[in-house]
C-alpha cells in the first residue's frame, strides 16, 4: 500500500492508512470533538481494522480542540438516539453496567498494543475523556495552547476510560490525585515538565513535529521496537531482577532472529 487509503469513516472517527502509518482523526470540530458511546465503538473498530502493515498510529482531532470530552447529552434522560442513556445503564445490573463500561474502554486500550506505537497530536482542549484518549497513546506531542483537565470528579464520577494508570505512571500518585480531584487545567509548560508531553511545539508546527517523530520511529527495525515496547510496558510491574531476566530473554530472541535461528 503506497497511497492514502480511507479504511473507516463513521460516528466522528476517520481512519486512513498509508503504508506503515495509520491516522485516526476525530471529525466533529463543531462540537470540539465531544465523545459518545458511538464514537468509542468507532475507535474500537478502527483498532480492529488496522492492517498488519501498520507500525505507527497518529491520533488527532480536527479543529481547534483535540477533544472537549464526553458529550453532556449522555447525562440527559433521553441520552443519544438509539442508545441507552447513562441513567438507564445505572438502573441495570452490575454485570450489564460493567460490560458496558468495558466496551467503552475498548476504544482506548488498543492504542497500547505492542505491535504499534501510538502518538497523540494534541491541540487546544483535551478534557476528561479527551485527556484519557491522549493518555491512552504511548507518546504525546502537544501544542503550546493545550489545556488538559480531568473533570470527571467534579461531575461526581471517576475517570474510567483507562486514563488513571498511565497518568499515575507519568506524573506520580500525588500529582495525579491532585489533578483528578481538583479538575484543574494542566497547560503546556507543566505537561512537558511533568512528562505528560514528550514535546511541546507551536500550533503551526504540530504536524511537522509529528511527521518527524513518525519518521524516526519507522526508521527503527519493527521487531526491535515491538520487543522494546513490551519490555518497557512491563517494567513497572517487575522487580529489578525480573526486569534483568526479561531483558535477557528479549535480547536472546532478537539475536536468534538476526542470526536466522528463530523458532
Structural write-up:
The chain is an alpha/beta fold. 43% of the residues lie in helices and 17% in strands. The chain contains ten helices and ten strands. Helix 1 crosses helix 3, helix 5 packs across helix 6 and helix 9 (222-233) packs antiparallel against helix 10 (240-258). The chain starts with a strand and ends in a 5-residue tail after the last helix.
Write the layout of secondary structure elements.
Layout: E1 5-10, E2 13-18, E3 21-26, H1 37-49, E4 56-61, H2 86-91, H3 94-109, E5 117-122, E6 125-127, H4 129-136, E7 139-143, E8 147-149, H5 164-171, H6 173-182, E9 186-187, H7 188-194, E10 199-201, H8 206-219, H9 222-233, H10 240-258
Parallel strand pairs: 3-4, 4-5, 5-7, 6-8, 7-10
Antiparallel strand pairs: 1-2, 2-3, 8-9
Helix pairs in contact: 1-3, 5-6, 9-10
Please give a quick description of this structure.
43% of the residues lie in helices and 17% in strands.
Notable traits:
17% strand; alpha/beta; globular; single chain; three-stranded mixed sheet; 43% helix; seven-stranded mixed sheet; 263 residues
Amino acid at each position: 500500500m503506497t497511497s492514502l487509503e480511507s479504511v473507516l469513516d463513521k460516528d466522528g472517527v476517520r481512519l486512513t492508512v498509508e503504508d506503515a502509518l495509520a491516522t485516526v482523526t476525530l471529525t466533529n470540530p463543531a462540537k470540539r470533538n465531544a465523545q459518545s458511546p458511538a464514537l468509542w465503538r468507532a475507535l474500537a473498530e478502527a483498532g480492529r481494522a488496522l492492517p498488519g502493515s501498520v507500525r505507527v498510529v497518529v491520533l488527532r482531532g480536527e479543529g481547534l480542540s483535540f477533544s472537549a470530552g464526553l458529550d453532556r447529552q449522555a447525562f440527559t434522560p433521553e441520552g443519544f438516539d438509539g442508545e441507552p442513556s447513562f441513567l438507564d445503564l445505572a438502573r441495570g445490573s452490575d454485570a450489564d453496567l460493567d460490560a458496558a463500561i468495558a466496551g467503552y474502554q475498548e476504544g482506548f486500550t488498543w492504542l497500547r498494543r505492542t505491535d504499534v506505537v501510538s502518538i497523540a497530536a494534541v491541540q487546544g482542549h483535551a478534557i476528561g475523556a479527551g485527556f484519557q484518549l491522549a493518555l491512552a497513546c504511548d507518546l504525546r506531542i502537544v501544542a503550546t495552547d493545550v489545556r488538559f483537565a480531568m473533570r470527571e470528579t467534579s461531575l461526581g464520577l471517576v475517570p474510567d476510560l483507562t486514563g488513571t494508570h498511565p497518568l499515575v505512571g507519568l506524573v506520580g500518585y500525588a500529582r495525579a490525585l491532585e489533578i483528578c480531584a481538583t479538575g484543574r487545567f494542566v497547560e503546556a509548560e507543566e505537561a512537558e515538565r511533568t512528562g505528560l508531553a514528550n514535546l511541546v511545539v507551536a500550533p503551526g508546527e504540530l504536524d511537522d513535529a509529528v511527521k518527524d517523530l513518525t519518521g524516526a520511529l519507522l526508521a527503527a527495525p519493527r521487531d526491535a521496537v515491538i520487543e522494546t515496547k513490551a519490555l518497557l510496558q512491563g517494567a513497572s510491574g517487575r522487580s529489578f531482577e525480573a526486569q534483568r531476566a526479561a531483558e535477557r530473554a528479549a535480547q536472546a530472541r532478537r539475536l536468534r532472529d538476526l542470526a536466522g535461528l528463530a523458532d
